[in-house]
């Protein structure tokens, strides 16, 4: 079923305004429409990019579903809603895409929409005793006093089904098996790379289930954005994946610029692309450092930090920031590049290419790295796509998902670089993808650094920016995968809804698939190879 077929054959289907081309589909035919798209023999929509919960006021509560075919690259977006605000129900699509298992829980957590047929309707980020649904427009901000008592996690979860008479039936499911020994890892454990907690079911030393518990640093960024002007929202992206700060803000700026009809100069596109690639190298060097440290190696940890500090010095001269980057602005960048920027970048690239062989000599061929990473934590290509694991994790399974190739932005269409993929699907492949991507990022920068055109570094914009009505989207290839932005505008100076596609949420969900059947000690290596960053997940 193609996009035009949906509009022609589904009664009541209509296209919504905006660059996303979202199609409104009646609730009663939504699941069969989604199933037809997923199983289309010519262009199966096997990649569910995102599910975004929505409160459309009088129209009701619902969600927007962004889908893509990995075979043809064709994309389609559907939206559906229920007018029942007291007991809002939507059909689950977790039977079609595994990523819906966690993303529907996110929608339930913030909007109270129950997905019939979903096997695990628990809160995801908030406490299980939280009152209300925070992203609804009618949410009472004073409904939850500060609680300092410990949260008790439930041993059972609910699956909701509709009976033939239209009533709702709740079925209890055990979260862990009766004979499972359940241990906690985190939220303070250093190998969880942030405030992440995992409840782990064990049979002896063998992992039977991984249940992630999220939200320890949830800041309500998407809710806050609804009361901020568009320029004010930019500061929020820098604090998501702090190792993709340039890239995340780039995506938001592009989304606003597309909607507002703002055209940036070629100089800006070159600068943004170079900064994005320096940020990718910065992130992958930290990935290397943390992974080897989790394996017990100290010297390579200092290698990665030594070269990363050089990148941060370059950033600081131009942007004023080291970890948090406030550089991209709507219409360009906050200031022109430093006079020594190009020279220092070229010197750094030359230095990095000389020392990278040392990284491999000390760790890549090491017997400990080989034993603990090779053949460990297998994620098949089919599972990577169904779970929505983009970035290096998906490419290590042979899935070509690079946004820079699929939907070129900046000046990526003007440079030659390889999309690194492996087919061994293990932790070692996830490690090697990122190490090889460092080399490709150097290639991209080398092609651009001496060819930055003259021109404005920022175009003038109106002091108050209002976007046309509609749903607007953009995406970039961040350090950990596809980072997406969705804005629904009602023509005001503030967004009606602004949502960020977390690169790490699918990666945390994949830990259950990756770790089952492996020893508890393997979880450390597997988690390090996946490379999630918790603030990006919690938002």
From TrEMBL:
Claim: Glycosyltransferase is one of the keywords in the record: no
Catalyzed chemical reaction(s): a quinone + NADH + 5 H(+)(in) = a quinol + NAD(+) + 4 H(+)(out)
Cell compartments where the protein resides: Cell inner membrane
Pfam families in UniProt: Complex1_30kDa, Complex1_49kDa
Membrane topology classification: Peripheral membrane protein
InterPro entries from the UniProt entry: NADH_Q_OxRdtase_suD (IPR001135), NADH_quin_OxRdtase_su_C/D-like (IPR037232), NADH_UbQ_OxRdtase_30kDa_su (IPR001268), NDH1_su_D/H (IPR022885), NiFe-Hase_large (IPR029014)
Primary location: membrane
UniProt GO cellular component terms: plasma membrane
Family membership: In the C-terminal section; belongs to the complex I 49 kDa subunit family.
The protein's assembly and partners: NDH-1 is composed of 13 different subunits. Subunits NuoB, CD, E, F, and G constitute the peripheral sector of the complex.
The protein's name in its UniProt record: NADH-quinone oxidoreductase subunit D
Organism name: Candidatus Phocaeicola excrementipullorum
